[in-house]
Each structure stands twice: as structure tokens, then as C-alpha cells.
């Protein structure tokens, strides 16, 4: 029988380390930690580090759940082999399978030759792709099943497929009440906190994680919540971030609320994709985020695992669709060709379309899909996006902005603008009164890594004296919104009356267009752009943000500031209506 020996003391943080702790009876967590952003989560653009949580249960039989990805393979194996006799391991339970995790699974199986892998049917298929030469002992879970480890540890195995993780498998332990939730209820943050004491600290991070991981899968997430609702859960044990105990009910309800916001949308956009090496998938998820920001309901379909009927139904009900394809041997994958055939045979020609893809040497598949759609009479909303090899942060930012533009184009074509208020009504009089609120005219400039953006803003106000702080309201579809999370830096450039800077920002910018091109620019100490012709500027750090209807209200602490024109007067923005800018 395996025995784990460890201390409950938190280990001293290193650039990468493994934090080990007993979390319940016969149950331990291995938290592989890094304070850097992991490359495999490249579309997760915040830089707060992460933990990759793996769990071990010891009954009469033993089970290891969810080993981390290749960033942690060596330190994880070194730690676990000191405490567990892997030759005696009975089960390796995988919440999901991907090439990154397979890098650890391989050497782990070398050390645990008698272990049976427990995974879903799509997970088994992915394992066979990852280890084509290896004879694997696999227990395939197609419906809910029970795995009895003894000593009361009856594990309920719950398939919860999502578009991004079609092989997702949750595990509930009846002895401890722990739900091992893998890609649900996590956050990419790194620290010493194992549980979520003061859970509101991570609420923003969990929302951002939800938007990155579960965008386009609202219905499937809702189904997963229904499946787990019948279990008396003590806490969630996710694959990333602190375990959720104090805020379990609140986070569960938050998931329900976030889902509802994603399904209560007007325009529906279907994203059809396949991904050979994960590159096309990364672009897909970035584009899905942009579509959601633009106000569209996103239906994400991984064609490698989708039924024909699912594609047919989705295409019949959508307002627009976008197809993402890799190029394999000069051709589109069979699954994409099948999906394209369904589109050409069933979709109305008035549906807006788009094409993107990644490739290694040529990219013929992107041209093939584009030409087929054009020949059939579909209107493409943007020039096909072609990405060679792995997308960069800038590419993903561009992909997101393409998605936002696509959603807004749909809105305009369907005339989904704010309805005109009937003159003289209470709503009209109220709108006129709200419009009399005057705000300083400013330009917000933000930068994170290689990503940058800028926007004209007038919903700006001083909020606090000590510390000096301001609030800025940012519309959800703004590109700069993605650069204004807790901890992000930005500059508030306060414009002077009579200057022409405002006119520069009144035009519509193309996705990822340099919004500062042609202006006289300097750089602040926090790395963001200062407009030299501004009246003054403030260097700010985002401390909090709150979701308010169609805007985010961002509260930031002012770190430094400078008056550039002591004789100038602050420009203000006056309106006659409060229902549009």
C-alpha cells in the first residue's frame, strides 16, 4: 500500500516548485507552481503565474488525478516518486488529455506500469494519438460510473464534455465530498494560498478564466452544473489555482450568472474548427472571446468530435459562421471538409462568413475554404486570417478584435442598435437629463507585453483622495478592455480644449491598427504611451473592476502624474442624450 509522507508547512517559493499538502482523509494535493505565465495558456493573457494541481487518493487501492503539463514534468516526478511507490499505483484518472499533459503522462506510466488509465471515450482517442506505439490499459467512461477504491472512497466519474475539452471528466469522492473539477472553477494565479480564504480576492481572476476557457460552451457548462448539483460537495479541487471552499456557493452561482449572460444574446455565431497541433484552436478561442465582447452568442464546435446533426442544427440557427482550419499535407482535414460540405448544402447565403487558419509551410486549406465560400456566394466579413506556426500575443489580440468586428457587423446588418426614444416620453426626458453629465475628454493608453491599445474616453472621474484614484468606464467591446484588469498599468492622457487629438480618435480603427500612429508620443515610467500634446497625464494601476451593464467600471490608483500645458483648459464632452456617446 502506498504511503504519502509530507508536512502541512508551505514550502518556500522558488521560480518553479511543488507545494504538497494533505487536504482531506487519505487525500493529498501536489501543486506545481510557477510565477511566470505558462506558454501552453498563451491566449490567457494575464500574467499572474499558475498552479497545476494534481491529486492523490489512498484507499485500499490508489488513484492519481490529473498530472501537470510538460512545464512541470521533472519537478513533479521528482517530488511524487519520493512519496509514492508508483509501481503500486492502481489508477491514473485524467480529467482531460492534451499534448502538453501527455508529456508528463508518458514518463509517469513508465514508473507506474500497472496503472489503469481512467478517461472518457474522446480522452482515449486522444491518448491513442499521443502514444500510437504504446499498449495502454484504459478504462473508458462513457456515462456516469463508480470506481471503488475502498475505505469509503467511492469515486463517481462524470463525463462533462465542452467544445474546448470534449473529453472532460469530473471525479467526485463520496468519502470526502471533494469534486475534482479539472477545468471548472479554476483560476490562473500563483501563491501560497491553497484554499480560497477571502474568496473575493480571486473573483476577477475566476471570471477571466471562465471567459477564456468556457467561451462558446455555455450550454455544456450549464449541463455540467446540473450533473454535479445532486452531490453534497465539500469543496472544488480544480486543475489550476486555489481550491474553492469558502466561496463554493457564490462561485457556482456566478457560473450560472455568467452562462446566462452568454446565452441572452441576439446574434448567434458558429465557430467551426479543427486543430492538428493546437495552434488553430488558440486562434479560435481568441476569436470567440472577441465575438462575445462584441455582443454575439458564440457556439463553438470542434469538428473532430461533433456529430453531423450538431453542425446542421447550429448552422441553421446562426446569423453568421466562421471556419478555422489547419493545413495538413496541403489539404484541409477531413472533418473540416465535411463541415464545409454541410455549410454549402444547408446554409442561407445571407449569413455572414469568415475564414482563418494556421499552417506550417503553405496554407492551402485556408484558400480552399475561402474559395468554396466565395464561389457559393457567401460574403466574407474579413480577409482570411493566415497564421504561420504558433500565434503570438499580437496575433491573438488581432484575432480577438476580428471577432469583435464580426459581431458588430452582424449587429449593423440586423439593425440591432439602441432603439430611438420617442420624443417627449419619460425615457426620452430621462436620457436627455443623463446626457447633461459632463466628463473630461481623455485618451487612455495601455500596454501589456507586446499588446497595446488606446481609446478616447469621457466617462472619467476622480474617485478617491487617499490614495489618489480615478474611475474609467470602458465599453465591453472596446479592444483596450482586455488590457485593463487588476494589476494592469495604463496612462490617462487628459486632453486640452482646442487641440486636434480628439479628431484623430473619432475614426473607426481596423483590428490591431496602431491607434497612436501620427501622434507625438513619449513613454511613461509604466511603459504606456504619453500623448505629448495632452494637457496632463496620469500613470495608473488598475486595482478593481466591476461589471456594470454594457460597461466595465475600472478603479485605478494614480501612481504619478504630470501637467504638460499649465496654461491649457481641460476639454470636456457634452451630449444631448444619455443613451449613446
Explained architecture:
The protein has 581 residues and is α/β, with parallel strands linked by helices. It is 27% helix and 28% strand. It is built from 13 helices and 28 strands. Strands 1-2-3-4-5-6-7 form a 7-stranded mixed beta sheet. Strands 20-19-23-26-27-22-21 form a 7-stranded antiparallel beta sheet. Helix 5 packs antiparallel against helix 6, helix 7 crosses helix 11 (393-413) and helix 8 (308-317) packs across helix 9 (334-346). It starts with 15 loop residues before the first strand and ends in an 8-residue tail after the last strand. Mean pLDDT is 89; it is low at 1-13.
Q: Ends: how far apart?
A: 68 Å
Q: Kindly estimate the percentage of residues that lie in beta strands according to DSSP.
A: 25-35%
Number of strands: 28
Q: Describe the global form.
A: globular
Low-confidence stretches: 1-13
Number of helices: 13
Largest sheet: 7 strands, mixed
Report strand order across the widest sheet. Answer: 1-2-3-4-5-6-7
Please compute the radius of gyration using only Cα atoms. Answer: 26 Å
Counting copies of identical and different chains, the oligomeric state is single chain
Helix content: 25-40%
Secondary structural class: alpha/beta
- Mean pLDDT comes to 89
